[in-house]
Each structure stands twice: as C-alpha cells, then as structure tokens.
Design a protein that fits this description.
The complex is a heterodimer of chains A (about 900) and B (about 500).
Chain A: H1 4-13, E1 36-47, H2 52-57, E2 67-74, H3 76-79, H4 83-88, E3 90-96, H5 101-110, E4 114-121, E5 140-148, H6 150-160, H7 167-186, E6 195-199, E7 204-209, H8 213-219, E8 226-234, E9 251-252, E10 256-262, H9 267-275, H10 286-300, H11 305-312, H12 317-321, H13 325-338, E11 347-355, E12 360-367, E13 376-380, E14 386-390, H14 393-406, E15 416-418, E16 430-437, E17 446-452, H15 487-492, H16 495-508, H17 511-525, H18 529-544, H19 554-570, E18 584-587, E19 604-608, H20 620-629, E20 634-641, E21 658-664, E22 674-681, E23 694-699, E24 715-718, E25 735-738, E26 761-764, E27 767-769, E28 775-777, E29 795-799, E30 813-817, H21 820-837, H22 841-845, E31 847-848, E32 851-852, H23 855-858, E33 859-864
Helix pairs in contact in A: 9-10, 10-11, 11-13, 16-18, 17-18, 17-19, 18-19
Chain B: E1 26-30, H1 39-43, E2 49-52, E3 55-58, H2 73-76, E4 82-86, H3 88-92, H4 100-112, E5 134-136, E6 157-158, E7 170-171, E8 175-177, H5 187-199, E9 204-205, E10 222-227, H6 235-240, E11 243-247, E12 258-260, H7 267-273, E13 281-283, H8 293-306, E14 311-316, H9 322-332, E15 336-340, H10 351-356, H11 361-374, E16 382-386, H12 392-401, E17 405-408, H13 410-415, H14 447-472, E18 487-489, H15 490-497
Parallel strand pairs in B: 8-17, 9-10, 10-11, 11-14, 14-15, 15-16, 16-17
Antiparallel strand pairs in B: 1-4, 2-3, 5-18, 6-7, 12-13
Classes of the chains: A alpha/beta (about 900), B alpha/beta (about 500).
C-alpha cells in the first residue's frame, strides 16, 4: 500500500483532467442490462478463434449491439516486435471514427511524448460486409508500441510531484493521463466522436465493435492470433443512440481490461466518489466506472488484490463476524474509506490484468456481495492448464471443446467447476487465475495457479494423469483379450456388479484398457434393447457417481464415458430407418422433420441436441414437447450445449414421463413440470424447477441460482450445492433433499404449510462428495446469513451435529430439536436419496466423526417462529 | 381495416344500486306543506319524485341533477314545500382524483349504460394535474356527422403487432381489465370483471393470485399474470390463456412488490395460492430470476416454450428510463408494453408510494411513444397505459399522448359501488363486499348484477369514445394515437394568456 502523501499527489496530479463542470457526461449513464461475459487463461498461448464458441453460446445474452474482446500475453513474432519491446512498451491502440484525424492526433499526443518502436494500422477484413451479420463498419485501429521519452517523464514527475512513484509507475500514470486527454479531445459522448483510446497497457490490447464479440475476432483477423488470456463480452444495451463501439466492453484501466455483467443502482454516487478523486468517466457506462475503480485501488492506493476486492465487494453481515479479528480491523477501515465507491446492485466482473511488476498475468472474477448475477468458475488441470470464468457453464464447456479440438492435451471437461459466494468469509466471492513465468518449459509456457480472495489455492487431486488420445498408449502383447469378462454381467442383466467391476478396474487398468472395456460395453449395447439399457445404466452410473479414479483424472474418465455414451446413442436408428425393431429411436437436427409418434414397441426417443439452438421455436425442448403430444413418454437428450427449457410445455398430469439429460443442460430445465420425472446427469443451471407443481427431479451435481423459485410441489434431489436463492417463495408441498449446501437466502418467504401435514420441506445435508467419492461434512452446513427469512410455512431440516447454524442466520424462523415425527417424515426421502446417490443413512448421515448417533442429535429443524403474528388471534373461526 | 363487423355488442340493461338508498349529489327536502298536487312528479324529467296512494315523496334523490335541471321542481312547487341542498354524504366521499362527481357518474353509467345527462362532472376529476388539467380540443368543422352509426367508428385494438406466430388478437374496445388477484378481490368481483370482458370482446387479467377454476369458461378472455411471487402460476394456467402478462412492478407501488395481509389470507385464498392460512403473503420485488434484460428475455422465452402461441405483455411501472425498458422488452420478444403510472392503485397501495415514486403516466407514455418511433419499432409494439384511467376522456387523452389502449382497474370496482374509502387492505377488507375474501361479505354482490354493471359502464365508455372520435373527425381510434395536437393543457394555456 502507498503512503498517504503519494496517494494524494497522484490524485492531485489528475486535477487537470477535470471535466467541464457543465458537462452532463458523468451524470448520465447509458441504460444497459446484463450481458454475456466470458474469459479464460491458458498456460500456453491459444488462438483467438477459441473465444468464438463461448461468444456464440452467449448470443442470447447480447443483441449484437456491442461486442468486444481483450487479449493478453501476446506473441511478439505475430506483432512484429521483439520480446523485449512487447514486454516493456505500452501498446497504445486507437480507434479512428473519423478519417484523417489520426495525423493530427499523432502530432499532438504521440510524437511529442513518446518514443515509438512500431506503429501502423492493424489488419482487418477488406470489406466488413463479408462478415455475416455485421452491419456497422467497425473502426480502423492504429497500434503504437511506445515508451515515454525520458525527458518528458522527468519533467512530468517534477511538475506533478510524483517522486514517491517508481519510474515505471510514473510512466504508467503519464500514459493514463495522456490517453484521458486524447479521449477528451477526440471523443465526446454527446458531441463529436472522432477517435478514442481502446487500450494502452503492456502486453495486451482491446478491440470492440458494434456487433457480436466473435465478429471482432473475424474482422480484425484474430482467429489465429495467439494469447494467454482472452476475455469477451456480448452486450445488450437497450438505449439506441449510444450504440457505438466506444460503449462496448472491455474497458481499460491501465494494465487491466474489464468486462462486466450487470448494472449498478448507484452509478451516480460512484461517479461522485470518483470525481472526488479527480477521475471523470467519459463513456457513460458503469463498466468504465468499474475499471476506473479497480485501477484506482490498484494503482493509486496500491492495494493488494485482496483489499481491492474488499473495496469493491465488501464483506457483510454474518460473514464479516466470521472473519479473524485482524482482518475485521483492516476490512472495517477499507469499508469506511471506500463504501461510497462500492458498486451496489447486480454485477459480475471478469478482469484480465497484467501484473508486470510480479511478472504475471491474472484473470480475475469478482461477484457482487448479493450474488445477483450468474457466474461459474472452472479449472482444467493437466499438461495444459486452463482457468475459465463465464456467466454460464455452457460457455465454459464450449471453450474447452473448442480448445480440445485443436490441442488434444486439453479435455472437453474441466476438473473443477464452482460458484463464488459473493462477499463471503469462505472464498471472498472472487478468484484469481495467476499465470506466472515458469522455470521450466518454453518461453511461451506459464504456470497457472488459482487462488481465492484470501490467497488460498484451489487444487485438483494430485498425482493423476489425464488421458491423451490413442497413439501414446501401447498394448502389451501378453495381455489376454478376454481380460474384461463383461459378458457374464450382460448375461446376468445387472448393472451394479458391472459398475463395481469397472470401478475396480480403473485402479488396475491404463487408459487403453479402460477404452477397450468401454468399447466392449458399447459393442454389447448394440446387441439389443436389454443390453442397451444395461449399458446405459452402467455408463450413467459412471457419470453420476463419484468413485476413486486412482492415477486417472476424473475428467478424463468422464470424457471417455461420455464419448462412449454418445457413440452408443448415435447408433440408434433414426425415425425413418425401416426394417429395424427395438424400443429406441434417434432424432437430431437433420431428421427433426421426421418426427412422428411411437409405433410398435418403440418406447424412447433419443434426441441429439448438439445442433439445436438454445431457445426459440426451433429448439430441442420444443421438439420434445411436440413429441410428447405425439405420444412419446420417455426421452433421452444428449449432446447438450446449454439448450434450455427441457420439460417445459408438457402441461399438467404428465406422470409416467421420464426425461434424462446428458451433457451441459441449460437454464429453466424442469420449470413448470407437473408429474414427469427429470434426471439431470451433471450440473444443473439457473432457474431450475421454477413453479414446479409435482413430479420428480434429480440433479447429479450442483444447481444454479433461484432453484425452484415459486415451486408448488414435487420431489427433488440434489447431489451437490444449490447456488443463491433456492426455493424462494415456494408454496404447497415441495420436498427437497440438498446434499450439499446453498450459497444464501435458502427458502426466503417459504410458505409450504405444515410439513407434518402434507406441507413442504427441505433437507439440507451439508455434505461434500470429494473426487474419490468420500462423503464428508462441509465446514458448516449453511454458510449464508439468511436462512428461511420471512417464511410462514414448511421447515428446513439441517444436518448439523455441531450446531453451527445459529439464530443470527434466521429472520422470523426458529431452531427446534428434531422429533420422531420429523424423522419419520424425512426418512423415506433420505432412503431414496441413498438409492440415487449412494449417500448412506447409517454410514454417512448418522455417523458423526465415526460414531453412530441418533437422528435426533444429528438433525435440527428450522421452522417459522410460532408467535402470534398480527391477526392470528382471529383465526380459529376460519376453521377449515 | 380488419374490423370485426360480426361482433354483437351486449345490451345495456338498467342495473340499479344494490343498496336501498343510493348516494346522490343532491338531497331534496319536502316539508309538511306539501299538498300532494303531483306537479313535481309531472315535471321532473329524471323520475326523482313518485306519487303513491295520494302521497308524494322523493324516491330517487340520486337521480336529481340539481341546478342543471331545466325545470326545477323546487321552483315550480306551488307551496314552496321543496328545497334542495348538496348531500352531505356526497361531500364526504372520494378524493381529489376520484371526486364524488366521478364516483356518482360512474355509478350512473354502470346503472344505465349512458353518460349522465346533466348535473355531474363526469369527464375530469379535481387533482389539479394530469388528465384533470388536460382538455381535448375539438376543432370546428372537423367532425363526422353526429348521426353516423356508432359501428362506423372503429375503436377496436390490435394487440399482436409483431405479426409473429403468436395469436392474432384484436379486442373490440381499446381497454382491458388490469390485474386484481383472487385474494385482493372476491371471486364474484373477479368473475364479474371477466364475464364483462368476455361480453365486450376484450380481456381481463387474473392478477397474481392463481387462476380459480370458476374462470375456466372464460379462458379466451383471461390474461394470466406471471408476477414476482409466482403465486398460483402453473404450466397449466399459462397454457390455458392467449395472453400472458409479466408483472415486474405496479405503478402505484414500484419497488415494493406485493403484500397480502394475513387477514385476507382466508382458507380459500390460501388454497388457491397453496400458502398458509392467516399468514401475510409477500411477492418480492423484483423477480429473483430476472436482474437484467437478458434474464428477462430468457424469462419470456420460457413462457413461450410453455405456450408458444401466447401473446406476451410486460407490465412495468414508469421509472425515468421507462423508454429503454420498453425497447428492451421489444427485443426480448414482448408484444405489449404495459406502462403502469402512479395515479392508480387501490387502498392497499401505501399513499406514500402512490404519490411519490413512479412517473406520472402522461409523461411516461409520450416518452415511450417517441422513443419507440425513433427506434423504428413503434408499429411493432402495442403500448398500453394504466394507472388512474377513470373516464373515457382519460382514455382519449392518453391515446392522444401516444398509447394504443389502456387497462382499467379502479373504475371496474367503482362500477360495483366502491366508494374509495381506501380500506381495501385492512382487516377482512371491503365493507362493500368488493375487495374482500370474507365469505359473508362476498355475498353482498350478486354475479349477474356485477357483470351487468361493468358491461354498462364500458358500453357508456364506448359510446363516449365514439362521440369524441366523431367530434374529432376520426373514423378510428388508431388515428388518434400520438395526436398531441388534439390536446390542450390548461396550465400552459394560462401562462400563454398571461
């Protein structure tokens, strides 16, 4: 952190930048909704085309009215400069909106101050109309590699009294102030717009257009351009006039580029806060303000990353109390100083930062304290390490898929996926992927390490190797062909023993063996419906369950299992195939027109979703609903890339219908179902099971925001965690078992009657299933500050043998001991839970530190406070 | 013009007050000097006096038009036995927005299906702003002949202007019933509104309190609401209807969500919403799953995936950036943007919210109208205004400001003889049996009576609208949209004069 005098001097030095006081610029913001944001950091440089797939996945999060990308950690050869120049020079990129202005700009703002090592207009497609869907010509961009002339810098330091800064810091500041002047001269949000600075940091640049983010890559010919970090943004602005590349993300601070999803409620007060520090936004969006804040904390105050994050997303309520005393003292001071600058409302930042001083690049994701925007983090480990941050999981999977197609060292599944808990004492709601210079390996190769806000490293299990495609594995000549004696299992028609056999085999086999075994299973599956069903059951178990993978990476095993499954499904005859019998039929994008009702013994429709759009009239969930009305009752969907609304539109009374989803299922799955059963093999996304009326939903993983909002009933099992706001405003009789925990606001305004008389409840087990399948309690079954707030009915049963949940987390609820009746109520659901997930009542739930306990000691019950609220006295006469 | 000529308008059937002594503006006093000559009975054009068994008495005070009377009985009385004064009940009723004049003229329309002929100011209230300071300007020589058939003036309204795969719906009158939930009002009130809507070829919204089975026969005229509490929202209810309304906020209380006090959560209401009897029900603000416009799009896509043919209406209040909200809704695939201004709200909305938060509707509508025009999507979006639309004149004014149609709410309740006592939320609710779920109080209204009252009211509105259009020389209501030149604002006229 800097001393006060230096901070003051920096702020004073910016006085000259003050805007025209009559200017409306910093008083009005451009209305902007949320957007799609994505970013990834890779230990080796990768091509720009990989930002394509996630960007396309997020089209529905933008309207093509603004897209942008930033690339960091570049390749000097591709830019035509030496490595030294790349690392030491500032890359000043200027977007020219009015022809001919660049000469004047160079004369006034570049030549006098900078030593220019290389300059020129960057390459682009000759005619922008060649790019499908791009209807506004993107700006021409000029790029300069520059250093501030020594005498200019000396003079600057003298005049501004910046002796407290290092040489480099002073140079940073000069560049920053110079760019502000360029923008001030050539860009007025309400007036003439001739040119503006896109970026000016070291070893990274930003490009943005009016269009979709992937069109940036196309237009500026970056498909094959390599960088360590890419971030992209799809924008969905709602105001017309300001549709303009300058308003698109990412925005630049100095050495950081930021994309943002959300909008602040306190834009005005933040601009006031910045104005007090002589910082004046010019582009009227809260994203610009965000990066200015970030830059202020980093560069002016010199805070370490933890404090920067705290200043942006303060730790609140109970989480604050849970912090160590020393941290509380510091955080209190930070909050007291910066709370007025803290963005209020929904926001989520992805930041690419060049921390040149420490010779590392950083990809940072920060979520707001209330967790109002969706966000997913992922870590892919192996010879190539990738850290990913996106607003939706499917964007992560799309990135990995794209990367894996080019480089087999990258798998299509990440090792870890997780959500951040905003402003929390557990992870701080922020994660940083550091790309450090590596000791070994080539110049291009960097070390990728992921840390949370508090500097705790996120690790994957050690000592496991990922699968690499075939040629590397050699078959031993002496291995008997029949060493996978799986025929007996198929003859017996029992999947469980085969599952045990394969599980155990994974320990002994290498990847080739496993692959061979899976091939055999596939071969069996094609022999007839009964075998198909058994293979399906087995492979599904292998995806759903957690078990030790020994020297293999779980993600690699999953990837292989998934590939086998998909191959199996694709072998199923399509609807127009004649002369084949069997209960299963396949439909995909090409054959969707052939949809008809089931005939003969046909019983299940397998939908290959891979080419279907995520929503709208052509989407696969609409097709599925149509198929339902044509008589199909059993559905298997695979190849999902975030397609939405599965199970929606079937209407009431759909008992007996079963849907299985494989792959990256999307938002709103199961929202509105009434009777049918939905199995999600993998993580669920946001808004699942909203207004669910009855039926069953099983999620073999985590689930996202506002899970079961306004639900009326149904039986639901979740293996992992639910993100924020599960079961808000749920009524009626939903019965839910969540084996993990929830981020916060579980069952706010829950109104589900009396659980002992047919009402609803949630069982929260607070467990974590680790990579080896061990089931362990989490540090606390419920970390949030709000549990069952304002609830009037229902109950939460929490597995809490150490009484970690306390009254402070409640607002209108009370904790009471469990009684026999309660246990009798939840027991059947825990049995089903055991059957589904293998979480044993005796072994896992009722054992505390190795000792068997009574359920009455292990569980607590949270119910609405039984006081006489206003009006209750007159109730008797209602009777019923 | 795709006017539906086959539509059969319902008949106006006289439907008097359900109380023995309807409240009127004037009160006639008869002294014992009366000689029962019958003169007053004979000359009164309104049927105020009756003679029975040799005695004359005032039967219908409420029909007396006071000094507007061409032949006042109290002057003609040979023995000066009659005197007139303002009814003290009348003075005590209502408020500046819903003046006693407006209340009584609405009751009159609900009884007769005609605007009152005299004695009452039925066009404007007395709020000192908004519609009450605006006047329609009729230029001489522009009018269509008074004698033209009412049917020749088209006041119907196309709701699906996107011309996409959703239903093609045209309503016969440029208004439909705004959302009032089962729970906030009684089932009889709800049914009366919906049956009237069906008879008039328009729609009525359920509000967010579920979709009672009693409504099923009128599915084609129901708009179901998906609001922030998601009470009673099921796939089935979304699939049943042709229009789905997203309620993001109410103009009367933006940012406050919804709140049904414990007392109104009777067993019936609790069953419908599957909640707990006697406990207050909260609709949060906002949708927990929608914090941005792209979330909103996803939300709309969801509803379309459940009911692909549904028209989507987005009801929002009027913040300062309401124009951008409208454009965002267009991009998200909405057909109707419903702007709910701040003048509306029953007694359940807190005064402090009604009077201080949202932008007045007469500012919001032109703002949105212009902005949609600039963005080139005005002709693809239907703009509905609501919040304090009390009279057909309000309807004409807001349409001249740029709306396509309106939503009604309080006016329907006034037709059922609401007196605007503003106690809708307290205790078990309404002393007049309208905004209540108390099984006893509900019996105060009979369904057929309620239905006919509302039909009558809107038939009167229709006639008046047609009359206004004729005077403006317009053959259809569409011509009036955005014609601010047909309006004058008294405040600015006076400034100009000074």
């Amino acid at each position: 952190m800097r001393d006060f005098q230096t901070i003051d001097n920096i702020i004073r030095s910016r006085r000259m930048l003050k805007g025209d006081p009559s200017s409306r610029a910093y008083r009005e913001t451009e209305a902007e909704g949320g957007c799609g944001v994505t970013g990834f950091a890779c230990s080796v440089p990768v091509r720009g085309k990989h930002i394509f797939e996630p960007s396309k996945q997020m089209h529905n999060r933008g309207n093509g009215r603004g897209g942008g990308i930033a690339a960091m950690g570049l390749d000097s050869n591709m830019l035509g400069v030496s490595q030294e120049v790349l690392e030491e020079d500032y890359i000043l990129q200027i977007a020219v909106l009015e022809e001919g202005v660049i000469g004047d700009l160079e004369r006034r703002f570049i030549e006098p101050w900078f030593k220019v090592d290389l300059s020129g207009r960057i390459g682009r497609v000759e005619d922008y109309r060649d790019i499908n869907g791009l209807d506004i010509r993107p700006p021409d961009v000029w790029r300069y590699f520059v250093r501030v002339k020594p005498e200019v810098l000396k003079d600057f330091v003298e005049k501004k009294g910046l002796h407290g800064l290092s040489h480099r810091e002073a140079e940073d500041e000069f560049v920053y102030q110079n760019s502000f002047r360029i923008n001030k001269t050539y860009y007025d949000a309400f007036g003439k717009q001739q040119a503006f600075v896109l970026s000016h940091g070291r070893n990274f640049f930003i490009l943005k257009i009016v269009g979709y983010a992937e069109q940036v890559v196309q237009y500026y010919k970056l498909e094959d351009f390599k960088a360590h970090i890419w971030i992209a943004h799809q924008r969905y602005p709602t105001k017309g006039k300001a549709w303009h590349p300058a308003g698109a993300h990412p925005f630049v601070g100095l050495n950081e580029a930021l994309v943002h999803n959300g909008d602040f409620a306190n834009y005005y007060s933040v601009t006031e806060y910045l104005a007090q520090r002589n910082i004046y936004p010019l582009f009227l969006t809260d994203t610009e303000v965000s990066v200015l804040l970030f830059d202020l904390y980093c560069r002016t105050y010199g805070y370490p990353m933890e404090y920067v994050i705290e200043a942006l997303a303060p730790t609140m309520e109970r989480d604050f109390d849970q912090l160590p005393e020393e941290k509380q003292r510091i955080y209190r001071a930070i909050q007291a100083t910066h709370i007025h600058g803290s963005p209020d409302g929904p926001w989520f930042f992805i930041i690419a930062r060049n921390d040149a001083e420490n010779k590392r690049f950083q990809l940072i994701g920060i979520t707001d304290t209330s967790m109002l925007r969706p966000q997913v983090f992922a870590l892919h480990d192996g010879q190539v390490r990738v850290g990913l941050i996106c607003s939706e999981k499917q964007a992560i999977d799309a990135t990995l898929k794209s990367l894996s197609e080019e480089d087999p060292r990258v798998g299509s599944v990440a090792d870890l996926y997780w959500n951040a808990r905003g402003g929390s004492h557990t992870d701080g709601g922020a994660f940083v992927f550091n790309l450090e210079e590596s000791e070994e390996g080539g110049r291009d190769e960097r070390q990728l390490v992921c840390m949370d806000k508090f500097g705790r490293e996120i690790r994957v299990p050690e000592g496991q190797v990922p699968y690499l495609p075939d040629p590397i594995y050699y078959e031993m000549g002496d291995e008997p062909e029949d060493r996978f004696q799986i025929s007996r299992f198929f003859e017996l028609q029992e999947a469980e023993p085969l599952f045990d056999f394969v599980k155990e085999g994974i320990g002994r086999w290498d990847y080739t063996d496993l692959m061979k075994c899976l091939r055999q299973i596939k071969a069996w599956a094609l022999k007839g419906d009964a075998h198909f069903e058994m293979a399906l059951e087995l492979l599904t178990l292998m995806m759903d369950r957690r078990y030790p993978t020994y020297d293999k990476k779980r993600r690699s095993v999953l990837q292989m299992v998934n590939r086998t499954l998909e191959a199996m499904f694709r072998h199923v005859p399509t609807l127009d195939t004649e002369g084949v019998r069997g209960g299963y039929r396949l439909i995909d994008w090409e054959t969707r027109g052939l949809l008809r009702g089931p005939v003969n013994e046909e019983k299940a429709l397998i939908i290959d979703a891979s080419l279907f759009p995520p929503e709208g009239e052509e989407c696969d969930s609409r097709l599925m609903a149509e198929a339902f009305f044509k008589g199909w009752r059993r559905f298997i969907v695979f190849g999902l890339k975030g397609q939405r609304f599965h199970g929606c539109g079937f209407g009431p009374d759909t008992g007996g219908v079963q849907i299985d989803l494989y792959g990256s299922s999307g938002d709103y799955a199961g929202s509105g179902i009434d009777g049918l059963s939905l199995y999600i093999h993998g993580n669920g996304q946001d808004q699942l099971g909203q207004i669910m009326k009855s039926g069953k939903m099983v999620i073999y993983g985590d689930t996202g925001q506002t899970f079961m909002y306004g639900a009326k009933g149904g039986e639901v099992y979740v293996l992992g965690n639910a993100a924020g706001r599960p079961l808000i405003n749920a009524v009626g009789r939903p019965k839910v078992v969540i084996n993990g925990t929830c981020l916060d606001y579980l069952a706010e305004s829950f109104m589900a009657g009396d659980p002992l008389n047919g009402g609803g409840f949630v069982v929260l087990n607070g467990l974590h299933v680790d990579h080896d399948g061990n089931i362990r309690p989490q540090a606390t079954p419920y970390p949030g500050s709000n549990l069952f707030s304002l609830a009037s009915g229902g109950a939460i049963y929490v597995r809490d043998p150490f009484h970690n949940v306390d009254d402070q987390q409640l607002n209108g609820g009370e904790i009471v001991p469990l009684d026999e009746k309660d246990w009798g109520l939840i027991l059947p659901f825990l049995r089903e839970n055991e059957r589904l997930f293998g979480i044993s009542i005796e072994e896992h739930l009722l054992k505390v530190e190795g000792e068997a306990r009574s359920p009455l000691q292990v569980y607590i019950k949270v119910r609405p406070k039984q006081n006489d609220t206003a009006g209750r006295d007159g109730l008797q006469e209602w009777g019923e | 013009m795709s006017k539906d000529n086959s539509f059969n308008w319902p008949e106006a059937v006289r439907t008097p007050s359900r109380f023995r002594n309807p409240i009127g503006k004037y009160r006639l006093n008869r002294t014992t000097d009366c000689i029962a000559c019958g003169k007053c009975v004979e000359i009164c054009p309104y049927g105020v006096h009756v003679i029975r068994r040799g005695q004359v008495f005032v039967k219908n005070h409420y029909l007396c038009v006071g000094p507007d009377c061409p032949n006042p009985c109290y002057e003609a009385c040979p023995v000066q036995a009659l005197s007139i004064k303002e009814n003290p009940d009348f003075v005590a009723m209502g408020d500046y927005r819903w003046t006693p004049d407006l209340l009584i003229s609405t009751w009159y329309m609900a009884e007769f299906g005609e605007v009152p002929s005299a004695g009452l100011q039925y066009r404007t209230g007395n709020s000192g702003g908004g519609f009450d300071r605006m006047r329609l300007v009729f230029r001489p020589g522009s009018s269509i002949a008074e004698e033209a058939e009412d049917d020749e003036v088209d006041i119907s309204l196309q709701l699906n202007r996107r011309k996409d795969n959703a239903h093609d719906i045209r309503i016969q009158v440029p208004f439909y019933g705004g959302g009032m939930s089962y729970g906030s009002v009684s089932i009889t009130t709800m049914l009366s509104r919906i049956r009237a809507a069906a008879a008039l070829g328009t729609f009525c919204c359920t509000g967010e309190g579920g979709y009672p089975d009693e409504l099923k026969p009128y599915d084609d005229h129901v708009i179901t609401q998906v609001a922030t509490g998601l009470f009673g929202v099921r796939e089935e209810t979304i699939q049943r209807v042709r229009i789905v309304e997203f309620k993001y906020a109410q103009g009367a209380k933006p940012g406050l969500g919804g709140h049904l006090l414990g007392d109104k959560v009777t067993p019936g209401v609790a069953r419908m919403r599957e909640a707990v009897v006697g406990y207050p029900l909260f609709s949060p603000f906002p949708f927990h799953s929608v914090y941005s416009v792209e979330d909103h799009k996803k939300h709309v896509d969801w509803i379309k995936s459940i009911n692909p043919k549904a028209l989507v209406s987005v009801k929002v209040s009027t913040p300062t950036d309401v124009d951008m909200v409208a454009v965002g809704s267009y991009y998200a695939g909405a057909h109707i943007i419903h702007l709910d201004g701040s003048y509306g709200g029953t007694g359940a909305a807190p005064d402090i919210a009604k009077k201080n938060i949202a932008m007045p509707i007469e500012y919001a509508v032109p703002k949105v109208h212009r902005f949609l025009q600039e963005e080139g999507m005005r002709d693809k979006m239907t703009v509905i205004a609501s919040g304090g639309i009390r009279t057909p004149h309000d309807v004409a004014k807001i349409i001249a400001l740029g709306a396509d149609g309106v939503c009604t709410g309080t006016a329907d309740l006034v037709a059922l003889e609401c007196v605007r006592c503003s106690n809708c939320e307290s205790g078990r609710g309404c002393a007049r049996g309208i905004a209540t779920t108390d099984p006893e109080l509900v019996k105060l209204i009979e369904l057929d009576w309620g239905t006919q009252r509302i039909i009558n009211l809107f038939l009167a509105w229709r006639k008046e609208l047609v009359r206004i259009l004729k005077k403006l020389g317009m053959g259809s209501l569409e011509e009036l949209v955005g014609r601010t030149d047909c309006l004058a604002h008294l405040d600015y006229m006076m400034k100009g004069a000074a």
